[in-house]
Amino acid sequence: MDIAVSDNGILIQSQSQTAAVTGTEFNYYLLCKRKLWLFAHDVEMEHTSDNVLLGKLIDEESYSRKKKEIIIDNAVKIDFFDNNTVHEVKKSNKMEDVHIGQVLYYIYRLRKKGVDIRKGVINYPKQKRTTEVILTPERENEIKNTVEKVIKIKNAEQAPDVLNSKICKKCSYEDFCYS
Ligand code: SF4
Predict the structure, then answer these.
(1) d(Cα 38, Cα 100) in Å, to the nearest integer?
(2) CA 103 → CA 122, 142, 143, distances in Å?
(3) Which of 34, 74, 76, 139 could make an SS bond with 160 (beta carbons 3.0 to 4.6 A apart)?
(4) pLDDT at residue number 67
(5) Does position 15 have pLDDT exceeding 50, yes or no?
(6) Measured in angstroms, how far is the CA atom of residue 44 from the centroid of ligand 1?
(7) How many other CB atoms are there within 10 angstroms of residue 144's CB atom?
(8) Which protein residue's CA is at the shortest distance from atom 3 of ligand 1?
């Protein structure tokens, strides 16, 4: 395993293996399985979403001073790591369940690299609040099972059906899915 440290962050990379599931794919699985499939099949529209841009702006501005990004296998980007804790910055806590799953996956990936941690914190600077998450052994098993499901969807020939959910209104794939 190679570990490189620069002013901007930490890069952890295994030369012998490539990551099967990226952080974005795991996140999309939790949000919408169709979104995961579209993204995995190179239908990329995320940059057109104002919500995504706003999220990135808050991420960059709120924590720019203490931020030390960690990138694992060019697949998972952790916002920063502090006091043996993974931190993720989000603009709104509306999708908190998804954020919790995402951070649990990051901790899982770090543990797979031999980093002995279990704790994560989701930072919501706009709401001035934080949520703590712990990757228990039971949750670790759940994450492992979820990773297998993500791979199954990525490899599926057909895209899953549209969700017909209110979250579609804020999704960058809305035009694609409902045209
Ligand atoms: S528009 Fe809805 S169904 Fe389509 S990818 Fe987005 S969330 Fe999924």
Answers:
(1) 23
(2) 8, 13, 11
(3) 34
(4) 58
(5) no
(6) 13
(7) 11
(8) 162
Which numbered atom of ligand 1 lies nearest the CA of 163? 3
Q: Each residue of 34-65: pLDDT tens digit?
A: 999 999 998 877 555 555 555 555 455 555 44
Q: What is the DSSP letter of 68?
A: -
Between the CA of 126 and the centroid of ligand 1 the distance, in Å, is: 26
State the SS3 of 16-31.
CCCCCCCHHHHHHHHH
Tell whether the model's pLDDT for residue 151 goes beyond 90.
yes
Spell out which residues line ligand 1, taking CB within 6 angstroms.
Answer: 32, 34-35, 38, 162-163, 167-168, 171, 173-174, 177
Considering the chain, what percentage of its residues have pLDDT values greater than 70?
Answer: 77
Q: What is the DSSP string of 94-139?
A: TTHHHHHHHHHHHHHHHHHTT----EEEEEETTTTEEEEEE--HHH
Q: Do 49 and 105 touch, CB atoms closer than 8 A? A: no
Cα–Cα distance measured from residue 31 to residue 28, given in angstroms and rounded to the nearest whole number = 5
Where in the chain are the domains? 21-68+78-178
pLDDT in tens, 114-137: 999 999 999 999 999 999 999 999
CATH topology of domain 21-68+78-178: Lambda Exonuclease; Chain A (3.90.320)
